[in-house]
Automatic annotation (TrEMBL):
It comes from Splendidivirga corallicola. It comes from the Bacteria. The keyword Hydrolase applies. Its EC number is 3.2.1.-. This is GH116 family glycosyl-hydrolase. Keywords: Glycosidase, Hydrolase.
Length: 914
């Protein structure tokens, strides 16, 4: 048995890990010991109750009691550092002070035992916080001569309910001895399509307090924050921390900073870790609001209010660097019976300075010494952050809440809405960085594997649909510039970090470029970069040396090794790149090149079936000239039809691979790779043992590659036979027995696109169930590190469920729901706005309605799924009928009309009679 798995079982037996948890409801089985060599049961024996729950709307998942332990939702702005809100409302994991490239053993999975450790051992995450910051809020209620004081966390309240709807955390506090209902809504402004408004180094805390009694009450909220500027410095010789009060009409702000001593021979505080400023603001203070600066540390909650009310209220103070000090704001409101009021606090931070030495090792570019985080260009201190947020609070909060309401005002299951959006929160973690020179840049996961790696980020679907400007920036500033593209059209898979081409990432990026064009409002992006795009397609065509539509040579890929010989996986991506190249060439009226791509595509479409389809699924034929190379040979690989999956998600209608064989391959992945107990499979599989654990006992998952027909003994060469430098850190083949979320999401979305709805939903739901709050943080999907970018593939599941396609330059929008067709409602996003789509279907016809809720959308073509091919339709905009042309085919209705610009509240209604 693999050592790490043996150790995991040993620790579990000692009460560490999954065995300490209450048993989850049985969703599959029971199973008897299989005599089949394959080990994974063909009949999954999924419970009828669990299958039913895949489709049901259900109820919002509210966490309580022990489920709050691991909760940590990122609550900062896009690329502004990482900060968690815990299940009881406290802030933790303060990774905002300086985003840098470092390898802290507590935050990186360096040893074989630790690889995957953040998943298998969720308590390890609590070791990642090098420096916590004291912060909190307490409530005081006065009524009828009585006074009750409690901290708004699990020390003061035993009845706390947490509902996480990224980007908004909703926490309810209840206590029998308090005549008030308290709800916290915490978020950083987040409005799809509004990048700047969603990229603020801040978190807002909105406490809604309602008098639930029959008598008037006085309620006070005391909110405090530690001066944590230069948080890791304690040498008083270097200088002091400062605090001052800034009073404005709409805010009262406590501003924390530091100043150097100026003594010669000493390092400057400006050069230390965490130099910058913090601000803690009360938005719209009342006349009763009070403050206290440098109030020290409080042992008893009852002391908080007395200390604030009796303290010296000077407007500025200083403290030594070795002294931990708090400052606080007190707000008091009076509530009549049944009345509700809101008290809002705003945390702002300003730590834009980078560790130049460490980042210089990662970014091999000129001007590294001048590089900072993006918000350096917008703000000059945390006071500026507070000013911007408070001056624009209503607009920012209303937009955030409107999006939250739009997303969840849906007929889709709550679990699906939660899981397909949660993964986007990696853009509010340290996975995503935005520099002051305008460049976006990404790790694979939090501070793990640099360079916005093409073969990892290609799986991500969410970011392109919510902030398309960011993905276009990836393409323009890196991939299609000299940073990413060689003169011959070869794409460096980690830009300046690694010049080697990853063939899967190269092909996937060509498809992403076409997606970025479609998620634009016009064709300027495509026109501007078409010469380099064409070079990229021409490069991968040259790699097809015998011009048969398949790739046979060295193919470096996301499994960290070079594979040789044709395979369904990378050749399907190659065909997808040809199809995307053809589409872009057609739009650029480059007819000769479009024909060249089309000819190869047609040839490859035939050859991939003829050479690689074994009657059930697509295989890999290893090159005999490279006997030491890793391979999957006759194995059933999760990504074997990846090119077709990506094509669906970016809205290409033409097939990459023939439908019959594609559906058969997907059914095989379900049959052979979906394991009701993935950990059990990993334990029993003898040929391949990897150290990483992404599924523990009893957890379902889709295994990366299995060998139902044998061949696993040939897949991974022995250690003494491996080629030189086959992989960077882990040894090839360790991934085969793993279950990794991003891969699972892509195959789940593909299943739904191809009509295997139940299998697709079950595949995605298995990931959701693994991230139950009973076991680990549901807001942190883990692969090589935390908040792994590949998990943003989950949004493909949403696209497939809605049958959602979009082409901004053409003004094209399509919906063809794959579930709940009779009564469907879901949100959609476009290049410049977003809204809601509704469908009501009966035997006599259907009514579809599109409502714009934010921004604008150009539209001239609408495609809808229908029940029959012979229909009559009426189209109206804001209640007025418009003329149109219609065409039906394959149970779809294509409606064309004169181009219109839809703005907020505009409605388009299509009434269809069968």
């Amino acid at each position: 048995m693999n050592n790490s798995r043996r150790d995991f079982l040993k620790f579990s037996a000692l009460g560490i890990g999954a065995s300490t948890l209450p048993p989850l409801p049985i969703f599959a089985g029971p199973f008897t010991e299989s005599k089949n060599r394959h080990l994974i049961p063909e009949d999954k024996k999924l419970s009828a109750t669990w299958i039913k729950s895949l489709y049901e709307r259900g109820k919002p998942e509210v966490l309580k009691d022990d489920e709050l332990k691991y909760v940590g939702m990122p609550v900062g702005g896009i690329a502004c550092g990482q900060l968690y809100l815990g299940g009881d409302g406290r802030l933790w994991l303060w990774h905002i002070f300086r985003i840098q490239y470092h390898r802290n053993p507590d935050s990186q999975l360096l040893t074989k035992m630790e690889q995957g450790g953040h998943y298998a051992y969720p308590d390890n995450v609590f070791k990642r916080e090098d420096r916590s910051v004291e912060q909190g809020v307490a409530i005081r209620v006065k009524q009828g001569g009585k006074e009750v004081i409690k901290k708004l966390n699990n020390e003061g309240f035993k009845d706390i309910s947490f509902r996480g709807e990224y980007p908004i955390c909703k926490i309810d506090y209840k206590s029998d001895d308090l005549p008030v209902d308290v709800r916290l809504e915490a978020f950083s402004p987040f409005i799809p399509g509004e990048l700047e408004k969603s990229s603020n180094p801040c978190t807002t805390f909105n406490y809604k307090i309602k008098n639930s009694s029959s008598r008037p009450i006085e309620v006070s909220l005391a909110s405090w924050l530690e001066n944590a500027v230069n948080p890791f410095e304690t040498d008083n010789e270097l200088g002091k921390r400062t605090v001052q009060l800034v009073s404005k009409k709409n805010r009262k702000t406590i501003l924390f900073a530091s100043e150097s001593s100026g003594k010669s021979g000493l390092p400057k505080l400006e050069d230390q870790h965490g130099y910058g400023s913090l601000s803690w603001s009360l938005y719209n203070p009342s006349e009763k609001s009070q403050h206290a600066l440098n109030i020290g540390y409080l042992d008893q909650v009852k002391d908080i209010f007395e200390t604030i009310e009796n303290s010296d209220r000077e407007v500025s103070k200083k403290s030594s660097l070795n002294q931990k000090m708090l400052s606080a704001i007190l707000e008091t409101v009076t509530l009549e019976p049944g009345e509700e009021k809101e008290v809002t606090f705003v945390l702002g931070w300003y730590f834009p300075y980078l560790n130049q030495k460490d980042w210089g090792e990662v970014l091999k570019i000129e001007g590294i010494d001048d590089l900072k985080l993006h918000y350096f260009n917008r703000f000059k201190s945390a006071n500026d952050v507070a000013s911007y947020i408070c001056d624009n609070f209503e607009e920012l909060a209303d937009g955030t809440r409107l999006w939250n309401q739009t997303w969840y005002d849906s007929s889709l299951p709550y679990w699906l809405l939660d899981r397909t959006f949660i993964t986007l929160n990696c853009i509010a973690s340290n996975t995503l960085v935005r520099f002051s020179n305008g460049r976006f840049w990404g790790w694979e996961g939090v501070e793990c594997c640099p360079g916005t790696c093409t073969h990892v980020w290609q799986y991500a679907q969410a970011l392109a649909h919510f902030f398309p400007e960011v993905e276009r920036n990836f393409r323009e500033v890196t991939d299609l510039s000299e940073l990413g593209l060689n003169h011959n059209g070869a794409l460096r898979h980690r830009a300046e970090n690694n010049e080697e081409v990853a063939h899967d990432g190269h092909c996937g990026t060509i498809m992403r470029i076409y997606r970025e064009h479609r998620m634009s409002s016009d064709d300027s992006f495509l026109r501007r970069h078409y010469p380099n795009i064409k070079k990229m397609v021409q490069f991968i065509i040259k790699e097809d040396r015998n011009r048969d539509g398949l790739l046979e040579g060295k193919q470096t890929n996301t499994l960290d090794a070079a594979w040789f010989g044709p395979m369904g996986w990378i050749s399907s991506l190659y065909l997808g790149a040809l199809l995307a190249g053809k589409e872009m060439a057609i739009e650029m009226v480059d007819t000769p090149f479009a024909k060249e791509c089309d000819q190869l595509l047609k040839l490859g479409r035939k050859n991939i079936v003829k050479q690689l389809y074994n009657g059930e699924y697509f295989i890999h034929k290893p090159d005999k000239n490279y006997p030491k190379a890793i391979n999957s040979n006759d194995g059933c690989h999760i990504d074997q039809v990846l090119g077709q999956s990506f094509a669906h998600n970016i809205g290409i209608i033409e097939r990459v691979i023939p439908e019959k064989e594609t559906v058969s391959a997907l059914k095989s992945i379900w049959k052979y790779n979906f394991a009701p107990d993935a950990f059990d499979y990993q334990l029993k599989h003898k040929e391949i043992k990897g150290p990483r654990i992404y599924a523990t006992q009893g957890e379902a998952a889709t295994i990366m590659c299995t060998w139902p027909k044998g061949g696993d003994d040939k897949a991974v060469p022995g250690m003494d036979q491996r080629p030189d430098n086959p992989t960077v850190w882990s040894g090839p083949g360790i991934y085969f027995d793993e279950a990794m979320n991003g891969f699972e999401y892509q195959v789940a979305s593909h299943m739904i696109w191809e009509g295997l709805v139940e299998k697709g939903l079950a595949t995605a739901r298995a990931v959701h169930d693994r991230y139950t709050a009973k076991k680990r943080n549901p807001f942190n999907e883990i692969e090589c590190s935390d908040h792994y970018s590949r998990s943003m593939a989950s949004y493909g599941v949403y696209l497939a469920a809605c049958g959602l396609e979009y082409h901004g330059p053409k003004g094209y929008l399509a919906f063809d729901p794959k579930l709940q067709k009779e009564n469907f409602k879901a949100a959609f996003t476009t290049a410049n706005g977003w809204g809601s789509f509704e469908q009501e279907r009966k035997s006599s016809g259907q009514i579809n309605k599109i409502t714009m809720l934010y921004g604008k959308m150009k539209l001239s073509t609408l495609l809808l799924g229908i029940n029959e091919n012979s229909v009559n339709a009426i189209v109206s905009v804001n209640g007025k009928k418009i003329s149109f042309k219609a065409q039906t085919y394959n149970e779809k209705l294509n409606i064309g009309f004169e181009e219109k610009i839809f703005h907020k509240s505009d409605e388009l209604v299509v009434e269809i009679k069968y």
